[in-house]
Write a structure and sequence with these properties.
Layout: E1 4-8, E2 12-17, E3 24-31, E4 38-42, E5 48-51, E6 57-59, E7 65-68, E8 71-73, H1 77-86, E9 91-95, H2 108-117, E10 119-125, E11 128-131, E12 135-139, E13 142-147, E14 153-159, E15 167-173, H3 176-183, E16 189-191, H4 195-200, E17 213-216, E18 219-220, H5 230-243, E19 250-251, E20 253-257, H6 261-273, E21 278-281, H7 288-293
Parallel strand pairs: 4-9, 11-19, 14-20, 16-17
Antiparallel strand pairs: 1-10, 2-3, 3-9, 4-5, 6-7, 7-8, 11-21, 12-13, 13-20, 14-15, 17-18
Helix pairs in contact: 1-5, 5-6
Length: 294
């Protein structure tokens, strides 16, 4: 766990297309002062700012979209996941379109560029949400929750009928090192049987084998997977991006089973509202057992 807030050493830029819009987009990550948080700025709309917080969640179908006063930023989860996984607190995210570039469908290109650029500590203490009582969201057999635990940890379970996926589970202690090596590489995935329906909704216009793992009835269309359980690793990547919208890094055990963006963001919202179940503090204010765990 980090004692101080963190930002980038200097700005870095990315160019690509939106997964759903297919629009070309340029994204620049700019260092920001302590206490800024993560803020998108639509430079095509006079630098209109949208804070990456749960109150701005607008849509959660097939991606997480933020909206403020009618201005949107969509498919934010992979970028926010990389920032959360690396422990970055303050950034301006300058973007010239309505959708974050999908790049290769994972978080690894964001992670590699950030690590190459460098992260710096700032002269302000970092605050954490320390979970004291369980917080859960359930929709039928789908669940997402967070439970008391002395350090950041996550478990994700999926169970798809498709033969190439099936039952998969990942349980991991969350650190920047484990995020980079175990989670960031995992790409988003989808099924050929859904393509026409999604296109009819105006989605996946930028989707391809270059930015997603695609499955048909016989198996995986792509040449290979990056790891045998890439699917569940990507679901955990999504969860971390969505849970970052709670506003502070979490000390506790995140758990999700058969979940998705709707339940992830509902959990972030419930965490932010259910203040009686946790406290917010710096590393210096934590109980010895929590501080030692970091």
């Amino acid at each position: 766990m980090f004692k101080y807030q963190r930002t980038l050493r200097r700005k870095i830029s990315f160019e690509g297309i939106g997964l759903h819009t297919g629009y070309s987009v340029r994204l620049t990550l700019q260092p920001a002062p302590p206490g800024t948080g993560i803020r998108f700025r639509r430079i095509d709309l006079k630098n209109f700012e949208i804070e990456a917080i749960r109150t701005h969640v607008a849509k959660v179908s097939y991606a997480t979209t933020l909206m403020k006063k009618g201005v949107m930023i969509s498919t934010v989860e992979h970028l926010l996941s990389a920032l959360y996984g690396l422990g970055i607190d303050n950034l301006y995210l300058d973007i010239d379109s309505m959708e974050v570039p999908i790049l290769d469908g994972s978080g690894v290109q964001y992670v590699e560029a950030i690590e190459k650029t460098g992260i710096v500590e700032q002269e302000a203490p970092r605050e954490y949400i320390v979970i004291e009582e369980p917080i859960e969201v359930r929709h039928g057999d789908k669940v997402a929750g967070v439970y008391p635990y002395p350090s950041p940890k996550a478990t994700y379970i999926i169970d798809f009928e498709h033969q190439a996926i099936g039952y998969q589970k990942i349980e991991i202690d969350l650190t920047p090192e484990s995020y980079c090596s175990e989670i960031a590489i995992a790409r988003t995935f989808g099924f050929t049987s859904d393509i026409e329906y999604l296109k009819s909704l105006g989605l996946i216009r930028g989707g391809s084998l270059e930015n997603a793992v695609v499955l048909d009835s016989s198996g995986i269309v792509n040449d290979h997977l990056r790891c045998p359980d890439e699917f569940v690793r990507h679901k955990l990547l999504d969860l971390l991006g969505d849970i970052s919208l709670a506003g502070h890094p979490i000390i506790g055990h995140l758990y999700a089973e058969r979940a998705g963006h709707a339940i992830h963001t509902a959990l972030a919202d419930k965490i932010a509202r259910l203040k009686s179940h946790y406290h917010i503090c710096t590393t210096e204010e934590m109980e010895p057992s929590f501080a030692e765990a970091g």
